[in-house]
Sequence to fold (413 residues):
Amino acid sequence: PWQLWRAFVHVVLALSGVEAIANLTGVMKKPVFQTARKSIWVVAGEVALFNLILAFAMVANPPGRESHVGDMMAYQAGFYVGKWGEFLVRGVGGLLLLSAANTAVNGLMSITYVMSRDGELPGVFQKLNGFGAPWIGAVIATVAPVLVLFFAHDINTLASLYAIGVVGAVAINCALCAFHPRLRKMWRKTLMGWLAVILIAIWITLAFTKLHAVVFVCVVLLIGLSLRAITRYAQKRRPKPSLLRQAIVEQLPIDALMRPKLLIATAGSAQLADTALDLARQRNATMVVCFVRDVALAIGSEARLTLESDPAAQSLFAEWLEAGHRYGVPILPMYDTGGNSAEMIAEAAAISGAERVLIGTSRRGSLHQLIKGSFQQKLEDLLPPEIPVEVISPGGNAAQAAPAQEPAAPVSH
Fold:
């Protein structure tokens, strides 16, 4: 019975694709329960069918209990089909493993980004690159498995490291869902509770039979909880950015909304402040600072950032407010997040009534241009002809700008 139970534990891990589907429910087409149900049944049926086919093939051609542990399917394909079948299975298997590695890296990037946004990890994990991905999280998500490979090489060991994490996460989810009021009917809660008990038993089995997996989980938890404690301690010692909205209102003169408006599109930098504000001062215009976070992660709508929850945006607008005070130019901040920065900037220009959109020179290479196209061209296609797009660079004439006059009286509330 013990050997049968251990075999059952290993078979359960083949259904880990269902757990991957559960992670995507936040971005599924509505109604989510129908989309998720279709995906889960397809994956479950596919895994069960192919495991049965492989089991029949192994029983008909038993290679030995300890042989071909890591390439059983390729071996059976070579026996039944021939060399070309074995080559095809190995090739497809390699591509699937690359896809799985990409999914794991993307998942770890998303987790670190969302936890950083929620204040559970340091804010440095929220820094995005030109593609809208958290590059520090990408580095960690790539380095972590590389470090693991220095200590674990065979498939059985690596599978146990993966399994103890997946089973533990799903067991926690099922145990919590068993007490969730939205299940309403008792038979649903009972089934969910029994599923949680089975998964907990599987996790305990893995913990006692795979001690290296327990060590791995302990190391991950130690690092994660330590970073969380450091983040919480730093948040208590560092005063939170406050009164930002009050500062924005106080620096706006009475006629700020009546002046011409220039919109500067920024992805998180104030390098163009001098050049842009010098142009705005020459035109006696209000500077609309549009900070767009182009987040290319499937993290769900519940993870949407706001100005109050984005420390990077608060710091950026504080820099622009300071620069605007020097030049005597009122600053009107606009903030948005999403997957299409060109559309969001065009919407911001239309909403604010900007007469001109300023963007910086692109530092992206030809590969980015080939994949995503020219950002300036996209923006010009979205904007009406009367709103031109002007490319500016840091430095310009702003370096010789004279000190600004005192700003007008603030708006009283």
The chain has 15 helices and five strands. Confidence is low (pLDDT under 50) at residues 397-413.
